[in-house]
């Protein structure tokens, strides 16, 4: 499936840099043609793996663009598609000639169909729905064909609107039942009144969607969608930033977010949560998770929520964000398919909340440390003072002052960040040597090395990862694994993003620009490789100890993206594995045995399979009694998994002395944030096992001296 106009992921790119194309400038007076000309020029000369613009490319672009415009197949007719198909194999030629005929024709037809759709949905929502009829709705739009006539189109809209209204109907019905439970004298609304109220809520929501969003789109906004679909044919991390989105990107890089404290991304017609800012309102709520889908948004002074499905991400964010202190209610679809309302009080969130933090834990008379790193952050204007590597080094020193005997580096859900920062951080754990290899098209590989011989931590090390550990996280885990410096515990593999992006300001290529701001282009310029020569692209980093997680059976990662670059290998770099001996094989074997017998992990795996089965169930009953019964059945089924959140270890976590000294003058709720984090750590089965592994490594640590001494003795005997 093709994403709908992915303008902004609000995640740091692996690299943020500029490219030079100063040998060429453009001055086409037609802005659309100018934009196409510049973008194709940049991609052909700057992209790591530029693809041929031929008939095959044209066909892919045609299919993806139609899907982007009408993913629910509720606007275009089959006859429209047949009209468009005359251009299916001409788009490559049009692009080369900066001809935008295909866009003009599809754009004009789409506006016509949208106008017709307004009449259709208003007519449908003007009449009651009958929820006693046995009929179903399939939420898998990939199975749909384009309709042949207006009758079929109206029927498609009817079912979609009935499905949307059904959740409103259920919400109101439950509210009425709860009101009756609280007050026996309360007079409940009858089913006719509930149905009418639910339908009116849907009408208001869809009116806002069309009037405030669709109608607000200018021609240049629609053209930006076409351009973005074009560039995404190259790979999933190449995308166009139109002027308004570029402003938002620049603001995000400045280091402050206002709202709920979550990073959002448009995937198909849905707005997904891709990161929760540590310490932010959404994080504090403990009710939102990465991969949750936001379906509706309701302000505190509004009676009904706004449906944001299909909305542009910038427009959706306008509803979600708001002044500090105001409340917003989000209707969330969880990974397991359940839907719930979550009310959050907005606040100003400093991105400093994503900085490294650490904790001390005692286990069986030994002292261990854990460092949580949400991302490989950096301030390029103040690199020496604000970067993840320096902060991790400081946390290591503070943990060492507490007598730390082993360290857990938690990179779960870490989506990446700065390339120089991860190279510097890897150097904290090795004496010196290569960390990652980088290759550009037509260039020799470049080996990025740690040249600082000092080591911040030479003791036992465990790295925690999961399917959402990406980019810089994968570089770090791979390097430590190749050096046999750490044991990696987590999912079968990490995300699998082995590419590097640059962001280029397209205005730099225009001579005497009179066309206005052209925006920017993020595009893939390099691939990075492990020091053993393998790529993490698609394959990710495979854990030494694989443990089940909630994403174990869900399609996440680079493999599931459209047009990912392939896996490949290059020659290995010259490196020497960690010189200190640990009994890795025995330690890993012990851990795997413990994991296979761990009831909590077995329950987590069972839950992951159950969640996947619910995701695969796409057909929903539009009969209210059956719909409600299905929801209740799933709730009952899900109760067996409540034990997952109730799990408790016998471990106690605490802040180190330096942090405790900050609590006295704290004005940012630091103590409360740390107490909440420590509470979550005490319930974390993965951290518990990481500490078990550290304990095993610590026990094997003295072996290094025995082995080393024996080796030296044998060497001397041979020489004599």
Number of strands: 22
Mean of the pLDDT scores?
A: 86
Poorly predicted runs are: 1-18, 249-256, 703-720
Q: Largest sheet, order of strands side by side? A: 20-17-16-13-12-11-22
Plain-language structure description:
The protein is of the alpha+beta class and 720 residues long. 41% of the residues lie in helices and 16% in strands. It has 22 helices and 22 strands. Helix 13 packs parallel to helix 14.
In short:
The chain has about 725 residues and is an alpha+beta fold.
Spell out the blueprint of helices and strands:
Elements: H1 31-46, H2 55-69, H3 78-84, H4 91-96, H5 101-124, E1 136-138, H6 150-182, H7 191-214, H8 219-231, E2 239-241, H9 243-253, E3 256-259, E4 262-267, E5 270-276, H10 281-285, E6 293-299, E7 306-307, H11 313-320, E8 327-333, E9 339-345, E10 347-350, E11 357-363, E12 366-372, H12 388-401, E13 407-410, H13 419-426, E14 433-440, E15 446-450, E16 461-465, H14 472-482, E17 487-490, E18 499-505, E19 520-529, E20 545-546, H15 584-596, H16 599-616, E21 619-621, H17 624-638, H18 642-646, E22 653-654, H19 657-663, H20 670-681, H21 685-700, H22 703-719
Parallel strand pairs: 12-13, 13-16, 16-17, 17-20
Antiparallel strand pairs: 1-21, 2-19, 3-10, 4-5, 5-6, 6-7, 6-8, 8-9, 11-12, 11-22, 14-15, 14-19, 18-19
